[in-house]
Amino acid sequence: MNIFQREIEQNAILRIKKFSKIAETLGFDIALGFSGGKDSQVCYDLCVRSGITFKAYFNHAFESAVTLNFIKNNYPRVIRRR
User: Which of 20, 45, 51, 70 shows its CA 20 to 30 Å from the CA of 13?
Assistant: First the structure.
């Protein structure tokens, strides 16, 4: 484990909150592209932990049933679209 992990996580959350305030000021909604992979899971978790309002979208194309079921079962708030 990285001894600076907590600090890195907190910095990421602070940046997300700043971005959210800027987006709100400009009248933009925040959308997160979500693939179900580890990077998407981390970004999703950081957005949730930051307390911002956002929507996560999964663009379904040729993903396996395993990926589709994983997202459906573990990330029910993610919006699936084709």
Answer: 70
